[in-house]
Specification:
single chain; 150 residues; mainly alpha; 41% helix; elongated
Length: 150
């Protein structure tokens, strides 16, 4: 092998430290720009999931009311959608298949809150949000069936 071919072969074997550092800086800049946009989306996605779940539960409650002429009481709770409730008011035409297979928890693994009669209508249905406590701001704000889309 000639000296010229040997030096060309050695020069093309890998990246220099400067080239690697330039690539790392570019990757770091991309992460710094893109990551904040992606991170905030997971909180909003959970709020959207909670709103969808509230709507689905509301529809099941409406079908329950159509069959039984009333909504379940606060004491009967949302479990009345899954298994036939006891107590008053007695569901006279409760569907043997139930109205929901499972009562979901909100995206933060808390139970949805149900009160009947409610202050907003025939019933109140809501999630306490990410903090699991009444009140709050942002993704920790309460999500009510009556405030969806507002």
């Amino acid at each position: 092998m000639t000296m010229k071919k040997l030096s060309t072969l050695q020069a093309s074997r890998g990246f220099t430290l400067i080239e690697i550092m330039v690539v790392m800086v570019i990757l770091g800049l991309l992460v710094a720009i893109v990551a904040p946009n992606i991170m905030g989306r997971s909180d909003q996605a959970k709020v959207t999931v909670a709103e969808t779940q509230l709507t689905n539960i509301s529809k099941a409650l409406d079908i329950y009311r159509l069959d039984n002429s009333h909504y379940p009481s606060t004491q009967q709770g949302l479990d009345a959608l899954k298994s036939k409730p006891t107590g008053n008011p007695e569901p006279k035409n409760w569907s043997p298949d139930g109205y929901m297979k499972n009562i979901p928890q909100d995206p933060w693994n808390n139970d949805f809150q149900y009160v009947s009669p409610g202050t907003e209508g025939a019933y109140d249905l809501y999630s306490y949000g990410s903090d699991g406590q009444e009140g709050g701001d942002g993704d920790a704000a309460d999500i009510s069936l009556w405030t969806i889309g507002n």
